[in-house]
Design a protein that fits this description.
By secondary structure, the chain is mostly helical. It contains six helices and two strands, in the order H-H-H-H-H-E-E-H. It has a two-stranded antiparallel ribbon. The longest helix is centred in the N-terminal third of the chain and has 14 residues.
Length: 127
């Protein structure tokens, strides 16, 4: 059925979803169960890509309470291009105590609270 009036189509879809909530939820659940392994494999592969790594890193920052006005700028320019700790100048290799840590001010909760990129040890010392 072709809808000429998009507003009517939108309203019809909304009513259908309200009326068939349980049916839609059940179909969604069945699809997810049927495709479980395929989705897990896809997620595993995605997490290995640069885009997946970036997405995971930004999500972790948000969970840690980091606030920034432009996540792409923070990750691509500030975080990725920093090669040495801003405090002790050690080369940041990505593993162990000399991996990159994003230092932020825990007392600021309503605006950007990122201070700088440090090695893990300096970040722990700073608290």
């Amino acid at each position: 059925m072709a809808w000429k009036d998009k507003g009517k189509k939108k309203e019809y879809d909304k009513q259908y979803r309200e009326k068939n909530k349980e049916k839609i939820a059940q179909k969604k659940k069945e699809w997810y169960e049927k495709h479980r392994e395929k989705r897990k494999q896809h997620q595993k592969e995605y997490r290995q890509t640069p885009e997946g790594i970036k997405s995971h890193t930004i999500t972790q920052w948000k969970h840690q309470g980091i606030i920034f006005h432009d996540w792409d700028l923070l990750y691509d320019i500030i975080y990725m291009l920093t090669s040495h700790c801003d405090n002790c100048n050690v080369f940041l290799q990505g593993r162990g105590n000399d991996r990159k840590c994003l230092d932020h001010d825990h007392s600021i909760t309503d605006r950007d609270n990122v201070r700088n990129v440090l090695c893990c040890l300096c970040n722990i010392r700073r608290g």
